[in-house]
Amino acid sequence: MRARNVSQTAAGLARTANIRQSTRIVAPQWKNSMAKLAPGRLMQARTYINVSGVRSEIRDRARGNLGSFVQLRPLSGKPLPQVNSWVVNFCYRAGAWLGISVTVLGLGVVGFFLYDATTYKHEGEQSDINVSQLALQPRRGGPDNLPIAEVFIDDDDCEAKKQNKDKPKLVVLGGGWGGIALLKSLNPDDYHVTVISPTNYFLFTPMLPSATVGTLEFRSLVEPIRRILSRVNGHFIRAKAEDVHFSDKLVEVSQVDSEGKEVRFYVPYDKLVIAVGSVTNPHGVKGLDNAFFLKDINDARKIRNQVIRNLEVACLPTTSDDERKRLLSFVVSGGGPTGVEFAAEMYDLLNEDLTRHFPRLLRNEISVHLIQSRSHILNTYDETVSKYAEDRFARDQVEVLTNSRVKEVCPDKIVFTQKQPDGTLVTKELPAGFVLWSTGVSQTALCQKLAKKLGDVQSNRHALETDTHLRLNGTPLGDVYAIGDCSTVQNNVADHIITFLRTLAWKHGKDPEILQLHFNDWRQVAHDVKKRFPQSVNHLKRLDKLFAEFDKDQSGTLDFGELRELLNQIDSKLTSLPATAQRAHQQGCYLAQKLNKLAHLSEGLSANDIRDGDLDAAAYKAFEYHHLGSLAYIGNSAVFDLGEGWSVAGGLWAVYAWRSVYFAQSVSFRTRCLLAMDWAKRGLFGRDLMSF
Amino acid sequence: MRARNVSQTAAGLARTANIRQSTRIVAPQWKNSMAKLAPGRLMQARTYINVSGVRSEIRDRARGNLGSFVQLRPLSGKPLPQVNSWVVNFCYRAGAWLGISVTVLGLGVVGFFLYDATTYKHEGEQSDINVSQLALQPRRGGPDNLPIAEVFIDDDDCEAKKQNKDKPKLVVLGGGWGGIALLKSLNPDDYHVTVISPTNYFLFTPMLPSATVGTLEFRSLVEPIRRILSRVNGHFIRAKAEDVHFSDKLVEVSQVDSEGKEVRFYVPYDKLVIAVGSVTNPHGVKGLDNAFFLKDINDARKIRNQVIRNLEVACLPTTSDDERKRLLSFVVSGGGPTGVEFAAEMYDLLNEDLTRHFPRLLRNEISVHLIQSRSHILNTYDETVSKYAEDRFARDQVEVLTNSRVKEVCPDKIVFTQKQPDGTLVTKELPAGFVLWSTGVSQTALCQKLAKKLGDVQSNRHALETDTHLRLNGTPLGDVYAIGDCSTVQNNVADHIITFLRTLAWKHGKDPEILQLHFNDWRQVAHDVKKRFPQSVNHLKRLDKLFAEFDKDQSGTLDFGELRELLNQIDSKLTSLPATAQRAHQQGCYLAQKLNKLAHLSEGLSANDIRDGDLDAAAYKAFEYHHLGSLAYIGNSAVFDLGEGWSVAGGLWAVYAWRSVYFAQSVSFRTRCLLAMDWAKRGLFGRDLMSF
User: Where is the EF-hand domain (chains A, B) (predicted)?
Assistant: First the structure.
């Protein structure tokens, strides 16, 4: 029994973990001396005592003498083995852990430096390269006899580009959300891709308000289009699309040359994607040159500089009290996400960073105002969300002026009319040192030109109309697509159903106007409609319900006139997709997938000499928009509208969640790293109030 | 003996480290079975065997039976204890280490988020504050009856500021190297400090060339002056100093108000420090509006945009081959550190990043040219250094044109004359898409105005002259100091010595012109001179040597005429301190130290009603410039001129060393973090070629 204990102890020692097992065999006499040891030394002490016990026991048994241990102790004669205290052991282990960690980290750093060292090129790469003569001196042609860029100077730059040289030419106008989503989902080897855009970077627009006050840096929100293009071995032309000649399949583009002269030329296409986005909607208001916009990086920089300029002028001894209050009155016109987020960021800046180094008087005299034409801010969001945002702003001393329409922006004030609860309009003025104009979007000049060119088929004043396959209405089928803010999907569900029903009625020999529709007929129609207009599914469900009700009461028939009215209502709702990054992104991805399919389909088709017909419908389903929800930052808290009545709003945790969403959606690993760095920077050092 | 071994073994187990000791007692029979174990399992096997040995031995001795272990084995009857293989153990330890590391890192991240969460202020701080009526409505006065900013709106913002309110007013003009060094070394409680500067940030100028091509971000090179000022509880006015009224002790400053109108007012001072820096020297060359400069952040941004614009236009199909070559011809005029570093960074950009995403044709047609008026680039550096730089550039295909003077900068070319080896001047032209002008510095408008106002006492055309205590010559003693590029220290050593010697001569009743100076006399003079002109020490040593030589040959006398000639030579050398950050920094630190001393000295002096006299000389030693060396980046290699003939030049290691120096010199923890991030960014993602 004893022996077994000892063996267990020794094995236990070897494993060190279950050392406590051995306490059982400690003789009572030893317990006293153990008690004298500091409690922390207990584990080692036990080990030691144990071992002595074993040793003594061996001697005892060898001599047949089972006397007490105490008597035997002097016989040992040699000094007690040194044991380490738990402090020493802990330090030893902590040291070991620290040592290993430092070594691993050190190796990481050294590794990074070694990697870094490989990124410096020492020798220039100047080898002979092939450039087509046609690329250097393009032939002229087209309606205006301009140079046609059929071949590019980098068409032979690498093997991949050489292989794509004779593939169908896919030209993308614009490098925004739609264009970039398309590029990121496109197969690399199917098309000769060219992107034409006046800026050579993609801008992550949803976080632009954060950049205006220095929470984020401009460079963290942008990614060079060339870098994104390199995946599909594409080409980039920094120029502005001016016109499209649909019959010649030519895009007319303009660029300012080094002498400041405008140069125009053509870029030919086989497939054209129009994704030029939108411009700020002036709503016919006077004096908008006194206001600031927020569409691109330059706008954001102008805003940042103006805000800091106002703060600096407000500090000067010569600035009067009224003037200081005016300079520090920041007015935002537009209660959509951009306006709300800008107001929130502005408030953060003033509240968190201004007071650190600027005179305290400024903080007291600052005011932020938000002018909204509707009765609530964030009116496209769930009602609870906009209520939350309004409460938050009320607490944060951001003045929200609802039911107000701006009449004029003057250099030193903004004039607006506010609808009173009794319905009367009152004209008011607000001194303003800064006015942001963010009240929705309207068509670009190119889109207006194209819509006019295409005539009656384009009846929407706000965007280019496409069918549900995103093909621009009025252009040769399968040539031209339009995605993103510049486009809208025409869901002519009503027309389609009505035609179908008319046919049905005549077939039954009845006048359609007095047709009583049966539920079974309706199911047939609905099935067909769902396939052609996936967007309408939810609305058709509503009709289903309606029918079910009719079915109960009046044996499943519906009056034709009633039905047409209902369908028209659905139509108008379907046509207005939101002008958001989300929609553009989905359309870009959809189009890329279809183009990928079409590229492989066309091989088979051209083998069979099939060139016409509704290839898009044959190749891929129609576009369907899935609303994934909306979110907005409202000053140390954020709101999420997840659609269908679900919404969340909260404080700091929601802010982190809001950031996480955008972090995940960000365009590249590079921008993600930069975003993380920026947020850490804000936490550590605050926002820097410098203008340049 | 056995027992002792066992006890040692068990103690060894407890310590685990010296477990090998126990192999001795393993019975030979067991060795065979041990051999069957994998070598990696040896340690655990030994432990186990040992323990069994102990167990068996106990039984053996108890029974008085000392038979072999092999016979005893079956008696044990129970399964052998499980031992872990070294792989399992290693994994266990690695897992533990990883676990601890992840936990520590995780805690770090959580800690950071918790800290971050505290940086969001939820409630606005709008408390009542005291603002002097005089700060809101300053009284008018001075030569032009302008408002005088005697009290500031933030004078009562906090306790520290309140305490400094009635301290002597120290006004610093400029927030460059000199001004910032002064602020960083000044005692917080001695002065009411005000900084007046047209920009509200300090710019780390030596790294500006890196920012032009995106190696570094602009924001990594700047630090808000307000943040630096907060240490001394100072005040900042973003305005431009226009004039100084020395008799009224008023600085006249101008600022543009929100309507674009210039507003002027006075800022009173007790002590004024002029540190306004310098402007680019036009050298009277025509067409400089076609060239770019590199003095501030806006210049750097303009350059960055122009470079990228040129690259983009060069990609267009309508750009002819000649035009493309011209657009890609980058010319730098000036072979000093700025010009050389810009050329090097430009070359890096073109070599490392351009080829990644731009057409390869561009790389072949790009050229970088460096025009230098002297016979070598970096001509202020050691000769080996400039030779190294020239060799490096020759290898990197950066064309260095020495002995060349620019005559005119045209929009599409640069015209210069080059001195041929035979001494003739040849006029040459170079097509240029971009011209950088970086050929030294000249005086700002303010300095010119002040020099003119002070009259003959300011005879230097290039800078304001001060005495060795950095007091501006011609102004009331101890009122006005000038430091940095805008100033130069007048070391009138010659005048001083000559006067001294003249006195000496007349005392001896001799004509000074025929005075033969003895070595002992000279030592006396030198002692006095050293104290007043610390800068001259090295030169005086040379004189000492010279004297020693004369001493040997002609019994220690020197001709007065010879001496004067020598002294004048020394003088002219001493007066031209380099226009570098290093000098400005040293002067700023020196002045701060002196002002700290003066503040406490003045208490005693005012108690004794002493107001005049050379307080500066009484309080602190004269300024002495210590040249710590110069360094320059020359394209994946760097050169260090450590002074007195010592110089180092090398490849990548030198680049890292060069960065380390600037990293250490950087103005704040914030900028250091950002610099490190930027360098890591360049390594990971390259430079981003985007313009905005």
Answer: 538-573
